Amino acid sequence: METEVLKVDRDNIDQKIIKKAANLLKDGKLVAIPTETVYGLGANGLDDLACRKIFETKNRPADNPLILHISNIDMLYNLVEGVSDEARKLFDLWPGPLTMIFKKSKLIPDTVTAGGDTVAIRFPVDKIAREIISEANLPIAAPSANISGRPSPTNAVDCFFDLNGKIPLIVDGGESKIGIESTVIDLSEDVPTILRPGFYTLEMLREILPNVRLDDALVDDNVVPKSPGQKYKHYAPKARMQVYVGKRASDFIYKKAKSYKNQGIHVGVLVFEEDIDRFDEFDRISFGSRNDLNQMSHTLFSSLRQMDKLGVDLILAEGVMDNNLGKSIMNRMKKSAAGNIEYL
Ligand code: TXA
Ligand code: MG
């Protein structure tokens, strides 16, 4: 299959491209679409066969449910059973990088929910995503548009790398603004529970719902996560990765990088802008300023993919403290590094 990549200008959206994407989706085909978090691999969320194609194409484990994307709140009511007052309060954050889990309605195919009785719904703020969903007039199932286990794609080139030849169309909307996936919050039970941290942090959500808690698995590595997707190897570059956190991290990475290089190991370094110059002699990418975690989340996945392109054997990366947006970033880095994190 030939994969077409069509670029959309955000300031002047070409309706022909929106229609083309929507028609493919209505026809049961898969289309990669931009969102503000990461690119999604979209399909008609009410079409069982189309959703199965998502699992085949991504090589996604069948027990990992999909998120349905909507383009207005009215679309929600057919898809879920019961919307709590707590959920309604969170509507203030919609459209945006927040996914809410509800009891599912009968309309939802089992493939979407992986056989479970709840469904995840997201109302993205990205204009291109919303126009495609509106034009298709369907809830669009869309996991991140990567092959399972790889870092999520934040631009069309990274989508193409994973999906070339497997889907008919990638809609290129430029770089994803946020760069890490949405916050997933379960509202189907008594206490609202964050299953995956994202741009909206525990601290931010508690300002709206003071009783929000983190899923036990986000606090204790030995607990099985409630969100199936959280238990798999994930966000992983080809190279082995080690993460260091703390005041001495940059010095430590420098010493380690030197010593590995002397052993003939091809090292790649991911550090902050403030320290980047001292790493001249290595393949290196900056996360941006240490004081700008938004920039770090924006560059994290594309930097990991860039390291693979450079062909490094080992990535040495500086991590951040585990709170606010740092928690969401470290949730990804921990998985990318298969738990290899040292606090210095
Ligand atoms: O930002 C995002 O959320 C992106 C963009 C494309 O919208 N999508 C995304 O989808 O990250 P995916 O499939 O890569 O991650 C969805 C996460 C997985 O961890 C999955 O297990 C969890 O949400 N999830 C989906 N439905 C669920 C459900 N009913 N109960 C618990 N967890 C669920
Ligand atoms: Mg994913």
UniProtKB/TrEMBL annotation:
Localisation per UniProt entry: Cytoplasm
Binding annotation for ATP: 60, 64, 118, 144, 152, 196, 235
Keywords: ATP-binding, Cytoplasm, Nucleotide-binding, Nucleotidyltransferase, Transferase, tRNA processing
YrdC-like domain mapped to chain residues: 15-200
Residues at which L-threonine binds: 37, 69, 122, 142, 182
A GO CC annotation given for this chain: cytoplasm
InterPro entries, alphabetized: DHBP_synth_RibB-like_a/b_dom (IPR017945), Sua5-like_dom (IPR006070), Sua5/YwlC_C (IPR038385), Sua5_C (IPR005145), T(6)A37_SUA5 (IPR010923), TC-AMP_synthase_SUA5 (IPR050156)
Catalysed reactions, as listed in the record: L-threonine + hydrogencarbonate + ATP = L-threonylcarbamoyladenylate + diphosphate + H2O
First-tier enzyme category under EC: transferase
Record EC number: 2.7.7.87
Annotated signal sequence range: none
BP GO terms, sorted: regulation of translational fidelity; tRNA processing
MF GO annotations: ATP binding; double-stranded RNA binding; L-threonylcarbamoyladenylate synthase; tRNA binding
Database matches in Pfam families: Sua5_C, Sua5_yciO_yrdC
The protein's role, per its UniProt record: Required for the formation of a threonylcarbamoyl group on adenosine at position 37 (t(6)A37) in tRNAs that read codons beginning with adenine.
PANTHER family: SUA5, THREONYLCARBAMOYL-AMP SYNTHASE
Similarity annotation: Belongs to the SUA5 family.
NCBIfam families in the record: L-threonylcarbamoyladenylate synthase
Protein's name in the database: Threonylcarbamoyl-AMP synthase
Organism: Anaerococcus prevotii ACS-065-V-Col13
